[in-house]
Structure formats: structure tokens, C-alpha cells
Amino acid sequence: MIRISIDGIPHDVAAGDRLVDAINRAGVPLSQVCYLPILGPIQTCDTCIVEVDGKLVRACSTLTSAGMNVSTTEGRARAARTEAFDRILRNHDLYCTVCDNNNGNCTVHNTTKLLAVEHQRYPYQEKPYQVDNSNPFYRYDPNQCILCGRCVQACQDLQVNETLSIHWEDPHPRVLWDGGAAIGESSCVSCGHCVTVCPCNALMEKTMIGHAGFLTGFSAPVLHNMIDVVKGLEAETGYSAILGLSEAESAMRTTRVRRTKTVCTYCGVGCSFDVWTKDRHILKVEPGEGPANGVSTCVKGKFAWDFVNNKDRLTKPLIREGDRFREAEWDEALDLIARRFGEIKAAHGPDALAFIASSKCTNEEAFLMQKLARAVVGTNNVDNCSRYCQAPATTGLFRTVGYGGDSGSIADIEQADLVLIVGSNTAESHPVLATRVKRAHKLHGQKLIVSDLRENEMARRADVHLRATPSTDIVWLCAVARYILDEGLADSEFLGRWVNGLAEYRQSLEPFTLEFASQTCNLPVETLKSVARMIAEAKGVCILWAMGVTQHSNGSDTSTAISNLLLITGNYMRPGTGAYPLRGHNNVQGASDHGAMPNFLSGYQSVDNPDVRARFRSGWGVDLPVTKGLDNHEMVDAIQAGKLRSMYLCGEEMSIVDSNANYVGEAFAKLEFFVIQDVFFSTTCQFADVVLPASPSLEKEGTFTSTERRVQRLYQVFEPLPGSRPDWVIIQDVANRLGAGWNYRHPSEVMDEVAALTPMFAGVNYQRLEGYKSQQWPVAADGTDQPLLYTKNFAFPDGKARLYPVAWREPQECRDSEYDLHLNNGRLLEHFHEGNLTYRSPGIREKTPDTFVEVSPELARSRGIESGSLVQLTSRHGRVRVRALVTDRVHNGELYMPMNSTTSPVNLLTGSHTDPATHTPAYKETAVRMEVLAQAGESPLPRINPRFGHPTPQNGVEVERKWQQPGYRFPGDLVQIETKREA
Ligand code: SF4
Ligand code: SF4
Ligand code: SF4
Ligand code: FES
Predict the structure, then answer these.
(1) What is the best residue among 190, 193, 261, 266 to mutate for testing ligand 3's pocket, by most ligand atoms within 8 Å of CB?
(2) Residue 768, Cβ neighbours under 10 Å: how many?
(3) Which of 45, 87, 200 to mutate to test the pocket of ligand 2 (most atoms within 8 A of CB)?
């Protein structure tokens, strides 16, 4: 710490802090139009000028040093700031009273007030450009754009989509998309970063326009007349009177615009934000304080909420009558469920029923679902969709380090020296997390290695892209580990102090020579050596992996090999290191954490542990079933075998997201009684006997747990749509119809029960999670959480990690002469999972209307295929018809299909073979043949999809180019000259 003086008052600050931060912390008001801490000093606005030791400088780009004497009040500094802001007002028509951005947080408005500007020195000058409305979600008005460059900085260096720039040399600079394209035809992925950070109304969400203000919903001519009237007053009254008027209007808005904090309902990154609403209209999503995301979002979290008010929402329970469904009242549906569950249990025992919790629902709802299964019905047949993706990663971590979760936080990934991504299309499946890697790679010298069959965005950016033969990641990972040990590059001190099992592990690596790996994986030996050295030499390594690893028959073993590699290189127990299995759904981590698993109660407490059962018996007053139940893969087999007769499925589209959809559909058709609760009538609902209308996340309270083990609260934005009910209410209703006698009045009471019964969550409660507060488990009773796991020891009785030997097995389904192509599948940025929510967003549909199969240019040439050709893919398990997209993201005989489709679901093609340790389907081990049905057709991806854009990478806004323009002069210099002249 050092001492500086600000306006004559001493302040202790950290040496090297940004001066603007120190001034802000001291509570001294200072204009700073272009500054946002997350974006760093952009230096375009010059409104933060202060005097430091007699010199005028920008506070945002000045670092503190001992003894610094800072004046914000000195006359020349004030004059310089006013001059700078006057220049800004030349670019912006101040019509706050009729502006949708007049919500108390407009930086231009607030700075006008702070600097007490009454009249502009430089009059407003219109720019020769039209408003750009071509993006479905937001619009850009060049005539309101103050050229602060925040949007450019965010797009270039935070989101790192590199779409935006400002051509400073232009006589009328403006923000450009892809150097001058229409927004809607550019590479913009609609993440919303630019809109969120824009300090005024130049970039705005279309859902705000005409809706936010009391006087903003008028037609353009009326609005322009009103603006003229208001502006006409300025000459006479000065701005203070006009600002007073607009502030009164802004204050009125607070009576009808609500801002409610929620957590994103889509992927596992855990972005949180305020949702601004007026009645049931979503005005906008406003990120800012989220511990995982700050100002960041992706297109789904920022814009894909139309489904909440979609006309297809279920609002009445449905009961099957023959081949049709009829609407029913809640009482009738619940009575029927209780009667049929009771009858089936009485006739066949509790294990004839099974329960599936939703990874999209809250922790509290997952906990109640497994409590219903165990304590009310008496079966351990309960699971969640982590079986389809993340169970192998959890197993790999259980085997080696003890906890089945990310070993650190997104901040650790950001500060690693080297990030290795295996089998994860991170930029599309975990977009905001990917931005942190892209940023560290672009700006901070982080090294990036990507192993993936496709050249996805991360692979394109990587220093090394490994395109290993499908299903062989385990081989090169083990070979690299062996090479590191053989060459003496391992961290022997860490191994000696913290790791058991080295001798046995070394022995297991015997077969994994570099030559064997090279041959098996089709990777050069030299590349493998260089990867090994990069990993061994990096100060901190984080490994990220996802379904490209786990959805193979060796998914658990490959995950184990990843953790082994981290252990031998000492990449645990320190910031900037560790294992990061990226969780797919918003709450797939939490559903497992809270006991929706056949072998674990909440907090991974084993069902066969008598002490655990005794604890739950004392809490719940019932004996619990002892033996492990069926997982969701086994459930389908058990239905086919006639052992499982009834199922209660909560919020999962299981008939098309489980592999081998034909087989799953056949099974569901055999169920005697099938209950589904969901927001929409899903594809799976066609098999149901009763469908219950549930409420989505915006209509309820609860908590989600993100990929970094972060528990966060979501607050109710809307009342449940009349007729629908929150899932926790429905599960309680069902339990009580079965005689449970539950009386939860709020999800917080469920969380209190979780904490009481679960050592891992002992200190979790709603007060500690209030607002944007969060906790990363495990959480001690006093509320202490653990952002970084394993700081003192590993989670085994002796505190040491365990190297776990693994072996290589061929994939279970391979190509042959009949099925000659390998079909890969995975996520797409714009859609989530099967697409039931995101296809209901018109903007997303406009950009990405349908699924497709990616075909390499080589294969396309040899088969006479073009983008738009209709092809039929046939596997050993089924067939689909789909349009081709020719792209060099895939190569040779590799095909890729996004998983997002209810009409041509890829799982009609996948098989039932699984990872033996977890029964996770080997979705990625699918062989197909391809027939061309129609050669010509419309491309499944329209030209307006951002994948066809042409980004313009550069470092931030390149403000130096602005300073080089003949018309530019640093306001500080100008003021000094004027002051001298006056003297
Ligand atoms: S990608 Fe598009 S929405 Fe995202 S910051 Fe860049 S221009 Fe804005
Ligand atoms: S559009 Fe960009 S440059 Fe213009 S005011 Fe908004 S953030 Fe600043
Ligand atoms: S989908 Fe994921 S990355 Fe996108 S806003 Fe939601 S949580 Fe964040
Ligand atoms: S805030 Fe410092 S130049 Fe804009």
C-alpha cells in the first residue's frame, strides 16, 4: 500500500492501481465517460482529466505511485473535462425525456449533470448515416453515438468476436461492423456485450424501444416533434431545467419497471443479471454484477427469453384418453397420479417406479424429486441428465482427486499460463467462459492447445490444434504423460508430497509410447513432444473438457487420464491450475449435488452408508432404500424388460436427448403410467399419460449451481403463467397426494433442510446468497466456501490424490464398408440442447432456423454435395433426413450434426453402447452412411448467419489513431494554452 493525496486528503491505495479506481473508491465524483473497470482504460473520452503533481493527465490510464498529489478540483482540470465532454455532446442529441435510455443510468445524461453543462459550446452535428435495424435483437443509431469506443473494446477484447471497429480516419467516424457491413449481415453473434456497455442510447435492445418510457412509444414524426420542442427550451432554460424534467420522468418509470436478479436458464457458466420488465414484457437483460460473468452474456442469456411468454406454454394439466389428450383440472390430474403410482407400487413394489429430476430446474427441486422417490415412494430409482454428459468427468475426478466438480473458478482459467481444451466447443457451448480464454490468449500471452475433431472457433485460435482420430484422446493424453515422466519433466516434489500410486500408474503407461500414440491418433510424434513440453513448462495449466471426451465408451477413463496428467505436472492446489469439466445445463451440477442420482443422496452421500441413512432417517422420519437404484440408461432397459412400469419425468426431453431415440421411444410406449411435467408439450409428452404444466426459471425462486460449483439465487421475475405451477410446488403436491405431509412454503426452507442433512452444504442459506452473493461448495457451517478446491489437501482420508491407471480400448462402434462415415455431434451457439426453448425465439430462428449436417469440402466434392443438398444419414440404429452444409470446419469423412432439432434429432442415429463405468451413452461413436436425396436446395444456414461474416481483429479501439487525427488535441494541452493566453 502507498499513500497519495486526493484533493488534499491522504488516501492509502495499492501501488500501481488505476488512479480512476482510487478516486472512485475515495468517493470523489469524477466524470469518466468511456471508463468501465472490466474494459480497462480506453482513453477515448478525455473526461477523466485530473491534475497530478501539476500536470493534466487522464486518471483512467494513470497508475498510482507513492506521494502522488492529485487534484480533481483544480480549475484547469475542470476546464479540460468540460471541453472533452463538450466535444462528446457534439455527437449526441440530448433528448432524455423522450429517450428509452432515460433510466437513471445513462452516462451521458449523468455526466451532463455532474459537469453542470448548461449550454453546449459545440452544437450537435448529425452524421450522414441511417439507423441500422438489421439485427433482430438490437439497433445502432450513429446519430446518438458518442464514439466512446466501449462497444469496440468489449467486442474486440472482452467477447473477442472482433466484429467492431471505428474508422478514426473517416471525416464522420462511426462504429463499423465487419468494417462496414450491415449489422445483420456481419459476424456479430448477438452476444450483447456492446449493447450492455454502451453508455447511452446509441446501441439499444429492440425490446426497450418504445416501451421503457412514458413518452417514448410514439411514432417517429411525433417523437421528432417532441424532441424539437424539448430542445427548443434549451436556449432559454439551459440544460438543468430539461434534465430536471427528464429525471422526473425517469423517477416515474421506477413505478412500473421492475429489475429482478436471475440466473441464466441455459448453459452451466452461471451468468447472472437483472431482468427489466414492464408487466409481462421483458424490456431487457442487464448484466453487471454477476460473479461469473460481469457484463458478459451470450445471445441466449441476453436475448432468448421469448419462450417465457410463448403462446404454446402449457397452462392446463393434460390427461391421455386413448390417442388424444384432454385438459383437466389440477386436482383431477394429481389424484390420478397418486392413484396410479399407489397401484403400481402396491402391485410391483417401489422399484417399479422411477423419477428423473431436471437439470434445468433448481437445486431445491432436484432435492425434492429425490426425496419423493426415496422417502415417499421408497426407491433409489432417481437420476438426472448428467448421465448423458458429465457423469464420466465426475467419475474421473472422484477416482483421482476426490470431489466431482471443477477444481477452481473461471478466474483460475483466465489466469492460467496454458489452457488445454479437449473435446469442447467452448466458444459455442460455454460462450461467456470461452471469452475469458480468448481474452487471455489474445491479450495476456496465455497459450492454448485444443484437441477436437472439428476446427471450431477455439481450435482456430489455438497455438496447437490436435485433430486426433475419433475416440483416441486417451491415447495421446497417456503418451504425453509417459513422455513427461520419462524425460524427468514431472513435478516430482508435488508427486512426492501429494500423490499416491505413482509406481502402478507408471507401469500402466507402458503401452503408451509416442510412436503408438502417433499411429493410433494420427498425430506426429514431434507435435506430441512439443505439447508435452508446453504442458510441463507452463507455470499453471487448466484443462477444460466436455462431451467430446465424456460421450465415448472410454469417457470415464479419458477424464481420469486428464486428471492424472494434471497431477504429475503439479497442476492442482494453486490458482491458475486444475481440472474443469464444463457442465452443460444451467443446473446439471446442482441436480447431481442435490441427490438426484441412484447411488447418492445430497452432497454425494452414498445410499449404502448406514450413517448417512441414519442421518436422513432422523431428518425425514422414514427408512430409506439401501441398494443403488437404476440410472436413466438402465431405466430404459428396465422398461423394455418389463421391470419398470411407471416414470415421473421432470423437465427433460428424454425421448430425443437420450441416445438411440427409436429404442427409447419404444420403451416409453410400454410404460403403464408416465407423468411428465414441462413448460411446453415436448416430443416426449406424446408418450405421457399425464402432462403437468410447469413454470420456467423466471417464474420461480430457488438456486442454481454452475460449472464452477457456484450456488446462486434466482428471484421470481413474473408470477407463474396462470394455470402453471413452479416445479417445487408440483412435486410437493404429488408427494402430499401420496401422504407425505410436506409443508414447504418457500424454496429457502428446502435449502435449510439440505444444509442440515448435507455436510457439503452446511453453511448454505438464502441470506448468504442474497442478491448477487454466491457460494462455491463445499461450504462450511460458518459460511466459508472454497472457490479453489484442494488448497490444504485432496478429498481423500489421507489428504493425498491418487494416480489411477487406465487402459485403451477401441471404440464400440466403428466405421466399416457399409457405414463408412463418422458422425460427430454437439452444441450450437444459438440453440440450447434439443431447442425447445430457443426455437421459440424469432430472432434466433431468423439467424439459425434449422439443424444441418456439416460435410467437408473433400467429401462434398466426391459425393456431388452442395450446401443445401438434402441427404439421408443411416446408422445401425436409425435414419434422418437433413440438409448439408459444406464447411472446412470438418475434414475428410467426418460429419457433424448439431444436437438441436426436434424434427431431425441426431439421436435417431446414435446407439445404446455406453461408457461402462457410468452408462453414459457413447453418442460420439456413431458410424453412418450418407445418400444424396436432392442435390440442390436452400442452404440450412442463411447468409445472415454470423458464421458467414468477416471479422476485423484489432487491439481494442486503437485510440492512438484517433489522437493522430489533425483535428484532435488533448483537452489538457488546449486548456493549458488557453490559460497561458488568458494570463
Ligand atoms: S459480437 Fe455483436 S453483439 Fe457481441 S459485442 Fe460484437 S457487435 Fe456486439
Ligand atoms: S455505440 Fe459504441 S462508441 Fe457509440 S456510444 Fe455506444 S458504446 Fe460508445
Ligand atoms: S447460455 Fe451460458 S454463457 Fe450464455 S448467458 Fe447463459 S449462462 Fe451465460
Ligand atoms: S474515462 Fe479516461 S479517457 Fe475516458
Answers:
(1) 266
(2) 15
(3) 200
Length of the chain: 983
Distance CA 712, CA 702 (A): 8
Handedness of CA 867, 266, 687, 875 (dihedral sign): positive
Q: Which atom of ligand 1 is nearest to the CA of 188?
A: 2
* pLDDT 10s digits, 436-450: 999 999 999 999 999
| Exposed e or buried b per residue across 719-742, where buried means at least 16 C-beta atoms within 10 angstroms of its C-beta | ebbeebbbbbbbbbbbbebbebeb
- pLDDT tens digits, one per residue of 768-822: 999 999 999 999 999 999 999 999 999 999 999 999 999 999 999 999 999 999 9
* Edge-to-edge strand list for the sheet holding 272-278: 257-263, 272-278, 281-286
Q: Is 976 exposed, middle or buried (0-12, 13-18, 19+ CB in 10 A)?
A: middle
139 three-state secondary structure: strand
Q: Let me know: does 926 contact 910? Beta carbons within 8 Å.
A: yes
Question: Is the overall model pTM greater than 0.90, yes or no?
Answer: yes
Q: Does residue 625 surpass a pLDDT of 90?
A: yes
Residue 977 has pLDDT above 70, yes or no: no
Residue 457 burial (CB count, 10 A) = 22
Testing ligand 2's pocket by substitution, the residue of 148, 168, 174, 958 carrying the most ligand atoms inside 8 A of its CB is 148
Cell of 922: 457413447
Residue 38: CA atoms inside 13 Å, Cβ hemisphere, count? 24
Q: Which atom of ligand 2 is nearest to the CA of 92?
A: 5
Residues with CB under 6 A from ligand 2: 145-151, 175, 198, 200, 202-203
CA of 177 to the centre of ligand 1 (A): 9
- The answer to whether 561 touches 479, Cβ cutoff 8 Å, is no
| pLDDT band at residue 215 using 50, 70 and 90 as cut-offs | confident
Q: How far apart are CA 75 and CA 486, in angstroms?
A: 69
Measure Cα distances from 510 to 556, 806, 808 in Å. Answer: 20, 11, 12
Q: Position 822: which residue type? A: H
The ligand 1 site (C-beta within 6 Å) comprises: 154-155, 159, 161, 163-164, 188-194
Torsion 423-917-635-352 (CA) sign: negative
33 lines ligand 4 (CB under 6 A): yes
